[in-house]
Amino acid sequence: MSTVQEIEKAMQQLTTAELIELRERLDALVEDELELSEEFKASIERGQRDITEGRVRIHQSEA
User: Fold this and answer.
1) Which of 8, 24, 52, 60 has its CA 20 to 30 A from that of 1?
2) How many whole angstroms separate alpha carbon 46 and alpha carbon 39?
3) 14: which residues sit within 8 A by CB, 6+ positions away?
4) DSSP designation for 63
5) What whole-number distance in Å separates Cα of residue 15 and Cα of residue 51?
6) DSSP string, 2-57
7) 61 backbone dihedrals φ, ψ, rounded to 5°
8) pLDDT tens-digit profile, the chain (63 residues)
9) What is the residue extent of each domain of the chain?
10) What is the spatial distance between Cα 52 and Cα 2, in angstroms, rounded to a whole number?
């Protein structure tokens, strides 16, 4: 059994609250990795160019 399969099996035993906590921890871990990657830096630069060049959508709240 692979590590991923072992983790998936263990996740089935978790409560909803524990799954939420796990998701938050995984999100933080991925975010930390993205902060350091060249791919993440490039995506920020693309976003900045899009804004500068007017390629944006403005979301208007229904409230």
Assistant:
1) 24
2) 10
3) 22
4) -
5) 42
6) -HHHHHHHHHTTS-HHHHHHHHHHHHHHHHHHHHH-HHHHHHHHHHHHHHHTT---
7) -65, 145
8) 789 999 999 999 999 999 999 999 998 888 877 666 788 788 889 999 998 998 888 777 776
9) 3-52
10) 46
Q: What is the pLDDT of residue 23?
A: 92
| Location of structure tokens 């959508």 | 57
Q: Alpha-carbon distance 60 to 49, whole Å?
A: 22
**Do 19 and 11 form a contact (C-beta atoms < 8 A)?**
yes
Q: Which pTM value belongs to this model?
A: 0.50
For residue 9, give both structure tokens. Answer: 């099996």
CB 40: neighbour CB atoms within 10 A?
A: 13
Closest CA to 52 of 60, 44, 40: 44
